Amino acid sequence: MSYSFVVTAQNKIIINTDLGTEKISRHIYGHFSEHLGHCIYGGYWVGEDSDIPNTDGIRNDVVSALKEIGIPNLRWPGGCFADEYHWMDGIGPRSERPTMINTHWGGVTEDNSFGTHEFLELCNQLGCEPVICGNLGSGSVQEMSHWVEYLNSDNVSPMTDLRKENGQEEPWGVKFWGVGNESWGCGGSMTAQFYADQMRRYSTFLKNYGSNRLYKVASGPNGADYDWMETLMKNGNPGRSFQGISLHYYTVCHDWRHKGSATQFDESEYFTTMQKTMFMDELLRRHINIMDKYDTQNRVGLVVDEWGNWHDVEPGTNPGFLYQQNTLRDAMVASINLDLFNKYCRRVKMANIAQTVNVLQAMILTKDDEIVRTPSFYVFKMYKVHHDATLLPSVVESENYTVDNESIPDLSSSASKDANGKIHITISNLNPNKGTAVICELRGTEKVDFVKGSIITGEKINSYNDFGKKEEVTLKEFSDVKVKGNVVTVNMPSKSIVMVELQ
Ligand code: AHR
User: Atom 7 (ligand 1): residue with closest C-alpha?
Assistant: First the structure.
């Protein structure tokens, strides 16, 4: 294990600067966007004739904001939508594309104006890798294999010709490929064994074209469904039929029928949210143990391709659109999960927070031509320092944060060293009632210098950013740091997230 929590009477982090071996893939900082509510339509896609400034129909403000956080990949078109999406409906002249009903999300009519070419143009503008989830639930092997051919083939072939007719001469070389989504639920209500057999069959016909090698992601377990993981790793032909396996876990404060408000919550609900999101630690540890049993060479990646807070929708909005505000509490949930993905980066090779714009724990909210950067956005901006850096194994010795006789650690943290030798430590003080001096002992070096720091905090646990108002939660410079040799003391305010750069 690369780091662990120990409960003590002081807050201390021991960082082994000379023991790093694992790389934190930047793809851990990935995103997910579905045809759901105003994520695609209104969120990214406004069409070429819109008054909202756009490039080829895609909003310029959203693209430039997402570039600020260094978005490494984008998963699309779902989610549940993926298993009812027929990709051929979304190519060719837009005026001739058929419509469909989006049965999962509000029963609205989908006009397919945003399809394959528009998605790949979005990824091009963002400078990120596309992650496409194919339809295993209601599609066919031929349909999925044709989609891969359309995207990636440069041979003389019917699908290559069709792509060229539609204006794309060169293959896109899409690498990341989901073989169905939530096949235990909205993706077809399958048993693990039935899905394993189907996935092997589909996978056989998903070909590598040219030098492009597909990284196929099997539809993995729902939270703590360890049997699903066991069956897939045992019978799903890991490493050959799939290179990654997904895990979905959402943080829900109360229960699925009454999840709780995104903005109106008390300290006990804040605490419960932190406690429930920390369950990700146990999930990762136990799923990885199963993967280690069947894949001793560590060839298969764990891909947490849906995670984040799921609250009740904002009052007055369409319940099928999953539109929720985003507070300092959401920022804490982001930092805790990202620290955990860093911690388990030996196995966790990709993760995708749900869902980038206007849906669930979004980075950006839009209203007409305005956008808001959420507190979660600023966590992703702060954590860019960990992209492709080497994880530094650490031990977090934390005081307890106690509410209603239940306790969790005050602190979440991770540390890495980048290609230039700079060390970055991210620390969250979850406790909303107490600031703390966190002592960071950097073993394996005698002396470090403080270079710079940044902080995210707010006046209240439910502070948030809203349209037409000054930001209440943002990223600011931070320098309340003292260095003596290899010991760095970080004076953290209550309910804050801090990044410290050292060299
Ligand atoms: O992100 C919303 C939905 O949550 C996705 O469509 C589905 O995969 C999951 O259940």
Answer: 79
Geometric angle at alpha carbon 343, from 342 and 349, rounded to 5°: 50
The alpha carbon of 217 and the centre of ligand 1 are apart by a number of angstroms equal to 16
Q: Has this prediction a pTM greater than 0.70?
A: yes
Instruction: Spell out the residues 6+ positions from residue 161 whose beta carbon is closer than 8 angstroms to its own.
Output: none
d(CA 31, CA 380): 10
Beta-ladder partners of 371: 366
Set 34, 129, 306, 397: catalytic member: 306
Peptide bond into 493 cis (omega under 30): no
Number of Cβ within a 10 Å radius of residue 61? 15
pLDDT at position 1: 34
Report pLDDT for 3: 39
Cβ contact 241:216 at 8 Å: yes
Those residues with Cβ within 8 angstroms of residue 70's Cβ, 6 or more apart along the chain or in another chain = 26, 29, 384, 387
Helices (H), 354-465: 375-382
> Looking up tokens 């305010």, which residue turns up?
493
Query: Among the options 182, 269, 397, 399, which is catalytic?
Result: 182
* For residues 450-467, average pLDDT: 98
DSSP string for residues in 12-52: EEEEETT----B--GGGGEEE--SSTTSSBTTTB--TT-SS
Distance CA 129, CA 30 (A): 9
Residue 234 CA, ligand 1 centroid: distance in Å: 26
CA of residue 34 to ligand 1 center, whole Å: 8
Atom number in ligand 1 closest to CA 182: 8
pLDDT at 7 over 60: no
Query: At residue 485, does pLDDT exceed 50?
Result: yes
CB-based burial of residue 485 (10 Å sphere; 0-12 exposed, 13-18 middle, 19+ buried)? exposed
Nearest CA to ligand 1 atom 5: 79
pLDDT in tens, 299-316: 999 999 999 999 999 999
Question: What mean pLDDT is predicted for residues 146-150?
Answer: 98
Atom 6 of ligand 1, nearest CA residue: 79
Residue ranges lining ligand 1, Cβ < 6 Å: 34, 78-80, 181-182, 306, 354-355, 360
Q: Whose CA is nearest to atom 8 of ligand 1?
A: 79
pLDDT given at position 2: 39
Q: Based on the residue annotation, tell me whether 306 is a catalytic residue of this protein.
A: yes
Query: How do residues 109-120 score in pLDDT, each as one tens digit?
Result: 999 999 999 999
